[in-house]
Amino acid sequence: PQLIDVNRRLNETTGFGVEGVPALIPPSRFYELLSQGKFPLATFLRRREHIDYIEEPDLFHEVFGHCPMLTNQSYANFVRHFGETAVRLGKGYSWHLFRIFWFTVEFGLINTPQGRRCFGAGIVSSPSEAKAAMEGKACEFRPFDLLSVLRTPYRIDILQPIYYVIDSFADLEAIVEQDIESTILKAKSLGDFAPAFEAKAS
Description:
By secondary structure, the chain is an alpha/beta fold. The protein has a single domain, classed as Phenylalanine Hydroxylase, CATH 1.10.800. Helices cover about 45% and strands about 15% of the residues. It has a 4-stranded mixed sheet. Strands 1-2 form a two-stranded parallel ribbon. The N and C termini lie far apart (about 40 Å).
């Protein structure tokens, strides 16, 4: 896929856009682009032996996972407002803010009349993650609650043991309408939940 074509189609649909980046970029730059209505798109492609999952987002993850969702106006609004909030709050809130992003845009699930479905790009771009999330034999599904999400640690290199589930994409917009700053401060005072995974070997 050509970025110029992806950018044009998204602009026509929801007013969002994309900007090519080499791979991972600093959080401040990441949030700044989102606040401008531009989703950072990594421009390298994973190797065949990494088809199931790579820790760094690649072109497949971005275009197959994120871009279709950016045609949904509520989802696009959420991503932009999330970026604006992150820019406004600054570095001291960055780590907790990304937990919101992780459990929605990357590993979010949504209830539908046909049953629970995946919308997070980290799920839909990984065959084994998608299977795990849909079969639900070794993981836990929790209703999305902002305070709980902010207290939930995660690892990027394993199948997720916990998924948070929304009921509609309008729920995403409602997240960024809450007092995120105060909720993060409360989450920090309460501390994290016990991890649902083993510590990563050093």
